[in-house]
Amino acid sequence: MSNDPVVRTVNLVKIYQNGGVPVPAVRGIDLSVEPGSFTAITGPSGSGKSTLVHMLGGLDPRTSGEIWMSGKRVDTLSESAWALLRRERIGLVFQFFNLIGNMTVADNVELPALLAGATPREARERREYLLGELGLADRADDSPTRLAGGEQQRVALARALANRPSLLLADEPTGNLDSRNTRDVLRLLSQVHKDGQTIIMVTHDARVASLADRLVTLLDGQIVDDGSIPAPRRRPLGRAGDVIELHG
Ligand SMILES: Nc1ncnc2c1ncn2[C@@H]1O[C@H](COP(=O)(O)OP(=O)(O)OP(=O)(O)O)[C@@H](O)[C@H]1O
Fold this sequence. Notes:
Layout: E1 7-18, E2 21-33, E3 38-42, H1 49-56, E4 64-69, E5 72-73, H2 79-89, E6 90-93, H3 105-115, H4 120-133, H5 149-161, E7 167-171, H6 179-194, E8 198-202, H7 206-209, E9 214-219, E10 222-228
Helix pairs in contact: 3-4, 3-5
Bound molecules: adenosine-5'-triphosphate.
The site of adenosine-5'-triphosphate (ATP) has 12 residues, from strand 1, strand 2 and helix 1.
C-alpha cells in the first residue's frame, strides 16, 4: 500500500465572485491527511469548512493551489475524471443527499458497490450491514422520497460507505439527527475508522469532533489550529440501549 497521504493540499485557495466582489472563502490551506486517520474540521460559520471539503470532493473548482490524492494530482482533472474518481475512491455525505427517488433505499446503497465491481451478493451483504448499523434495515424496500430528512441523511452515509472508499468526506453528517440517530451514525463512523477507513468530517459539535483523532480549526479560510486529540479525550461509544445525549 502506498504511504502517500490520502489527501494533500498545497496553498489551496478559493475566491468566490459575488456580483463582481471577490469573497475569499479558503485562503491558502496546506493540509495533509494520512491513510486511516479521522480528521474533524471545525470553525465558526463562514470559516470555509464546506468550501474546503467541496473542493476535496471535486464539487467546486479551486481558484489556485494544488490537491493531491494518494500521490496523484487531481485539481487539474476534468469533471468526468472527477466523477470517476468519486465513484471509485471517494464517499460523499453532503447536505443534498441526491438519493435516487425511483430506486429503493436498498438499491441506492448497493449501486456504488456494484459500480465499483462488487458481486451482487457482496453489495447486498454490505448494504445489509450498513443499513442495519444505522437502524434502517426495515426501510430497505422503501423509496427514499418516503423517508424523513434524518433517515435520508443516514441512507446517504450508508451509500457513501458502500464501496469502501479510500476517503469518506462528510459535511455535518449528524446535522439533522436526534441524539439516538446521532449515536448510531457516530458508532458506525467509529467502527469503519477502526477498520481503516480514512475520514474527513466537518462538524460544529465539539462532542462529535472528539471522536476524531485530529481536530483542524478554520477561521476566515485559514487553519488556525491543528492538533491531534489525545486518546483519553475521545468519548467512549455506548452500546445499543445506552442513553447518550449528544445535543443540547
Ligand atoms: N457559492 C458561493 N458564492 C459566494 N460566496 C460563497 C459561496 N459559498 C460560500 N461562500 C462564502 O464563502 C465563505 C465560506 O463559506 P463556507 O460555506 O465554506 O463556510 P462554512 O465554514 O462551511 O460555514 P457554515 O458552518 O455556516 O456551513 C462565506 O463567506 C460564504 O458566504
